[in-house]
Amino acid sequence: MKARVLVTLKSAVLDPQGKAIEGALRSLGVPGVASVRQGKVFDVELDAADPAKAEATLKEACEKLLANTVIETYRIEFVG
Amino acid sequence: MKARVLVTLKSAVLDPQGKAIEGALRSLGVPGVASVRQGKVFDVELDAADPAKAEATLKEACEKLLANTVIETYRIEFVG
Prior knowledge:
2 helices; Phosphoribosylformylglycinamidine synthase subunit PurS (chains A, B); PurS-like_sf (chains A, B); EC 6.3.5.3 (chains A, B); phosphoribosylformylglycinamidine synthase activity (chains A, B); ATP-binding (chains A, B)
């Protein structure tokens, strides 16, 4: 089973990397970009065929490793 | 206008970071993860209200900065 996990900063958290990208785009002459926030995406292949088991595995992976749940949120999407 | 840009490694490219995450999940006792590939996600807010202009701006941003098009591919999704 394939899934995609999207990990993004909570909206209240400042994103210095995003700010740096905004500045770089401006200096590269790319117009009209008001703001940028960067996150992580994980494409995960799971052995389990059962969606409930797969979801439990992914939640455990996010809570333990993929996301810092103090400042980040994660969203699990099953693919195909 | 809001958009999400997903940047992922081309499938033929080895992902050492993904391999490291697989190993870490195994040692953390998270079962049943066959493979992990990591990418980047950018949530971008654009001044332009015209979708065509916004798409052109995002393509330029990806080609110039957000993606290394030699080893990565990018996908643009408009949000809301």
